[in-house]
Amino acid sequence: MAKQAMLRMPGIHRTGEGHNQFWVLDKDGLITKARKDLDSAVARFARGFGPDEVPDLYEGASLVEVVKKVKPHVLLGLSGVGGIFNEEVLKAMKESDSPRPAVFAMSNPTTKAECTPDDVFKHVGDKAIFASGSPFSNVSLGNGKSGYANQANNMYLFPGIGLGALLSGARHVSDGMLQAAAECLASYITDDEIRKGILFPSVSSIRHITARVGAAVVRAAVAEDLAEGCCDVGPRELGSMSESEAVDYVARKMWYPIYSPLVSDK
Fold first, then answer.
1. Binding-site entries for (S)-malate
2. Could you tell me the pTM of the whole model?
């Protein structure tokens, strides 16, 4: 999914399985084509030989070796191993080819996070971008500036994906539907916010975001001929909706619960 998203970005022209800008590691280090019993799910990302390869990287190379030699733009942690992005790894990440190196410590709970935002802004620098699966506080960088501890919480997408899948009548959720949801969420963030290191919109907009994401999922399901309709709205009606009409349609189907405060007598 990450590769598919990257290939859709403006300025990316290379296509096909040969375009491999990902270096995947597991508990045994860097995965290459020399790995025995290579898992079919990761085989397309196994490093080998050719113009996209980095010299002197070998099967099982350590994380810090890979970061030092590759100088990646993004370090994505899905390991479930707390603290694996240690000081040595993060200092190596400071030499990234990107002016805004990104570190995503996605494992949770907090004790399993690959690093903390304090670690990142201390060792990678003020220009770093941080996101995590667990909640952290923003970091004071001095002079009134903050290093943002973005939490990549599924509340931004899961409700809209579920609602869009339901209202489209799709029998399964495709990669294209997930991609549409992610691109819709990304559209909420301005260039100025990104320059500040902010990756996600305010939670105060969550209902509007859910309606927009749901509509994007519906339209993607229609485009992929997966929509079978829901209740009295068939696939033809869904297909004839404009973007704004789809948003209105999804918004009308959302639940609006009314919460009553609990009152206790002392």
1. 108, 153
2. 0.86
